[in-house]
């Protein structure tokens, strides 16, 4: 092992002469450069604070947001799988700007035969095609999807000019909508509902061949106002499928007509629920309102089986109302079972609700509402109390999608009712995740179309905490050790987290796991739980029912924790660098009172006689020329060196002397950093007597040397081994250099990782 030069240590004034830095040899001058420090501030990347968004990350004094209110009449045609509707939108211009036109989102147009989505995909042959997909793709019979806009009129019935640009529609209002004013207009439309099990969409229907019924999960079903804000003006990014939704808050009054034998749940209060249920179901519902220990089945499996056979030709209309929500969705079918349980949150009662077909049992009856209850409690603890009156989990095949108060979740047993642990865990995880989306982004209303990580990543982190409190040891996917494979992959297929969501290669890793793992590191390693929890809760409360940006999040986390985290945001969010910290070498030293060669050289350099500083203590590398066998006999500094013993007895009382460490061993550890990220160093010291000690060095230790740093350990016990990040909390991609002495099992890992990680 290559040994370093001698390390000088003195208890006198010798360090004040600047001996720690040698005069550099004269060499050829190199050109200058911009600030390339990993600790450079983020001022160039973040927008300038203003009256709308402050430097602290809080909303500014002139912060504003628009409001869009909807009144809708919706008809679900179960026989033809079709929806038709009429809506009146009242748009409130709370901005300081006058608006010449309005932008409306037509997300169903992603299913239109001529959708640009089909043209922007660059795919070769698929793995397989079911008959429906084969017919659509190759036989010239694509699904006839997308909104069929029948009319756009003002409140007096006059036509309004509009232009459809794929999934966006510009409404050319006849008069400028001035700041502080509002206006109403009407849209009439219809569209064919897609089979989401074929189309892979976020909403649609599932057909059950055995009984001939459909189960509908309906969202993005109405033309929705786009966001207008202080950051971008109108948010007009096209819906390409991955980047989700940017929406203003508003109030909804919705009438939904379904077959008379359907059970429906959705966003908001069901105003005529008593009329929609049977007398027995209503009694069970009233019981559920007071049941805080277990769910009450309101619509039973037996009743659902009976309804499956009826196919009523009659209809009924569900009257619904929701206030201060950003969207509206619902689920309806004659196949549905319905159960509920009350939860106490912040002095009010909230209903945890599950909706599922018999195909979901026994798994759903056993777990769904129980998981919803736990999620509501956990998220309320870490962010803010759930503000709405209910949270609904709907079982839907191959689905995981969220809307205000309602979400679709996968997970079904086999036909015989059995299920694997993987199916169970998958269902629990997706329910926690989708119910959790009520906080991010349904209430803390970030722009999903632009920054997928702001809802998916933050929510996946909160999901991890909730999963672990639900069941310690639950196989959560967002621990730092779970993202090392992604971060050590092919750099040409990795994008920074701060990338518009449609343009990332791996959405699951980029928007979900990596941001969540980073927040976990912030909480457990960098800030600590107390500082992190206060900052995270501050962000959630500052921006609930508002529209935050990434800068608002970054600034609030620093503001509320009192910690400069620019180095972390820059590395983890703005680059594709990875973490790799290792132990380059460990050098053991002995102690002497004889000046070493290095001390003599440094004294000579500064024109000082080193002897004038004696007596002093020096650390000597046993492999150096300064080492003599006599030095090995000096094993107890407090006894072997009289001048030190005299100094201590003069300065300290006998009682104080007993508290001093009897330091005998001196180790220099050289940490190296092949990875591009700066991270704290967590070093576990294992002593020969079996005891352990953990050393923590903040990331700032890398400020002046981005490649390697040295730390001196002085201890009264001999070190047996040293391990970096023993609990795998820092997403270190290469564990083969994390131990001293090097472990045999790490050698093979080393060879694999060195090939996979691009340096």
Write up this protein.
The protein is an alpha+beta fold and 759 residues long. The protein has a domain at 1-21 and 37-47 and 579-759. It contains 19 helices and 31 strands. The strands form seven sheets. The chain has a seven-stranded mixed sheet with strand order 4-7-2-1-13-17-15, with no helix packed on it. Strands 16-19-20-21-23-22 form a six-stranded mixed sheet, with helices on both faces. Strands 5-6-3-10 form a four-stranded antiparallel sheet, with no helix packed on it. A hairpin with a 4-residue loop joins strand 1 and strand 2 (82-92). The longest helix has 20 residues, at 363-382. The protein is elongated. The chain starts with 66 loop residues before the first strand and ends with a helix. The model is unreliable at 1-22 and 751-759 (pLDDT under 50).
Short summary:
This protein is of the alpha+beta class and 759 residues long. The chain contains 19 helices and 31 strands. The protein has a seven-stranded mixed beta sheet with strand order 4-7-2-1-13-17-15, with no helix packed on it. It has a six-stranded mixed beta sheet with strand order 16-19-20-21-23-22, with helices on both faces. A four-stranded antiparallel beta sheet has the order 5-6-3-10, with no helix packed on it.
Fold blueprint:
Layout: E1 67-77, E2 82-92, E3 102-105, H1 117-120, H2 131-138, E4 148-154, E5 161-165, E6 168-172, E7 182-192, H3 196-199, E8 204-208, E9 213-218, E10 224-225, E11 228-229, E12 233-234, E13 250-259, E14 263-266, E15 269-270, H4 273-276, H5 279-288, E16 296-299, H6 301-308, E17 315-325, E18 330-333, E19 337-345, E20 348-356, H7 363-382, E21 390-395, E22 400-403, E23 406-409, H8 421-436, H9 453-470, H10 484-487, H11 507-526, H12 529-543, H13 550-561, H14 566-574, E24 582-592, H15 597-605, E25 618-620, H16 637-640, H17 642-651, H18 654-657, E26 665-672, E27 681-687, E28 692-697, E29 708-715, E30 719-724, E31 739-740, H19 744-756
Helix pairs in contact: 7-8, 7-9, 8-9, 9-11, 12-13
């Amino acid at each position: 092992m290559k040994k370093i030069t001698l390390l000088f240590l003195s208890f006198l004034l010798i360090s004040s002469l600047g001996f720690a830095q040698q005069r550099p040899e004269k060499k050829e001058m190199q050109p200058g450069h911009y600030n390339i420090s990993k600790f450079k501030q983020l001022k160039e990347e973040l927008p300038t604070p203003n009256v709308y968004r402050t430097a602290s990350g809080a909303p500014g004094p002139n912060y504003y947001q628009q409001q869009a209110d909807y009144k809708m009449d919706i008809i679900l045609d179960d026989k033809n799988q079709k929806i038709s509707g009429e809506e009146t939108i009242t748009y409130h211009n709370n901005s300081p700007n006058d608006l010449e036109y309005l932008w409306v989102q037509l997300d169903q147009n992603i299913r239109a035969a001529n959708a640009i989505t089909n043209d922007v995909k660059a795919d070769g042959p698929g793995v397989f095609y079911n008959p429906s997909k084969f017919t659509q793709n190759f036989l010239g019979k694509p699904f006839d999807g997308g909104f069929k806009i029948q009319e756009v009129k003002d409140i007096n019935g006059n036509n309004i000019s509009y232009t459809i640009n794929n999934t966006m529609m510009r409404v050319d209002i006849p008069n400028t909508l001035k700041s502080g004013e509002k206006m109403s207009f009407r849209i009439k439309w219809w569209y064919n509902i897609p089979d989401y099990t074929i189309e892979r969409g976020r909403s649609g229907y599932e057909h059950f061949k055995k009984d001939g019924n459909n189960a509908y999960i309906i969202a993005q079903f109405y033309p929705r106002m786009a966001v207008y804000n202080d950051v971008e003006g109108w948010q007009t990014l096209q819906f390409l499928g991955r980047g989700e939704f940017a929406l203003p808050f508003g109030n909804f009054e919705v009438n939904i007509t379904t077959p008379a034998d359907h059970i429906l749940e959705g966003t908001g209060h069901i105003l005529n629920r008593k009329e929609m249920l049977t007398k027995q179901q209503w009694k069970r519902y009233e019981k559920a309102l007071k049941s805080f220990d277990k769910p009450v089945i309101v619509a039973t499996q037996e009743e659902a089986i009976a309804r499956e056979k009826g196919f009523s030709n009659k209809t009924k209309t569900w009257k619904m109302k929701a206030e201060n929500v950003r969207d509206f969705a619902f689920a309806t079918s004659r196949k549905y079972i319905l159960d509920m349980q009350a939860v106490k949150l912040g002095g009010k009662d909230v209903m945890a609700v599950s909706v599922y077909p018999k195909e979901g049992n026994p798994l759903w009856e056993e777990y769904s509402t129980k998981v919803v209850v736990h999620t509501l409690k956990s998220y309320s603890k870490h962010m803010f109390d759930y503000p709405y009156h209910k949270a609904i989990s709907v079982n839907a095949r191959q689905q995981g999608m969220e809307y205000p108060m309602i979400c679709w979740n996968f997970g079904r047993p086999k036909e015989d009712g059995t299920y694997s642990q993987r199916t169970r865990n998958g269902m629990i995880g997706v329910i926690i995740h989708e119910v959790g989306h009520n906080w991010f982004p349904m209430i803390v209303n970030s722009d999903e179309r632009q920054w997928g990580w702001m809802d998916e990543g933050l929510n996946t982190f909160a999901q991890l905490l909730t999963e672990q409190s639900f069941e310690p040891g639950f196989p959560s996917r967002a621990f730092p050790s779970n993202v090392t494979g992604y971060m050590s992959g092919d750099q040409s297929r990795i994008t920074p987290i701060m990338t518009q969501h449609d343009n990332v290669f791996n959405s699951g890793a980029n928007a979900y796991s990596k941001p969540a793992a980073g927040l976990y590191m912030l909480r457990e390693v960098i800030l600590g739980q107390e500082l992190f929890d206060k900052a995270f809760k501050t962000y959630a409360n500052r921006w609930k029912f508002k529209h935050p940006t990434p800068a608002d999040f970054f600034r609030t986390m620093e503001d509320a924790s009192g910690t400069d985290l620019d180095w972390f945001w820059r590395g983890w969010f703005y680059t594709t660098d990875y973490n790799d910290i290792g132990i380059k070498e460990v050098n053991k030293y002995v102690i002497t009172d004889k000046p070493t060669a290095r001390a003599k050289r440094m004294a000579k350099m500064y024109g000082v006689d080193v002897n004038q500083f004696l007596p002093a203590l020096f650390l000597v590398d046993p492999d150096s020329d300064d080492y003599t066998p006599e030095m090995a006999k000096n094993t107890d500094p407090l006894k072997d060196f009289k001048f030190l013993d005299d100094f201590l007895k003069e300065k300290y009382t006998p009682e104080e002397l007993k508290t001093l460490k009897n330091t005998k061993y001196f180790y220099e550890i050289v940490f190296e950093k092949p990875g591009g990220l700066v991270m704290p160093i967590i070093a576990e010291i294992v002593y020969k007597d079996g005891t352990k000690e953990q050393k923590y060095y903040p990331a700032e230790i890398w400020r002046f040397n981005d490649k390697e740093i040295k730390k001196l350990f002085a201890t009264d016990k001999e070190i047996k081994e040293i391990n970096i990040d023993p609990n795998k909390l820092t997403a270190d991609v290469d564990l083969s250099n994390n131990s001293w002495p090097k472990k045999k099992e790490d050698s093979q890992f080393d060879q694999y990782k060195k090939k996979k990680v691009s340096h």
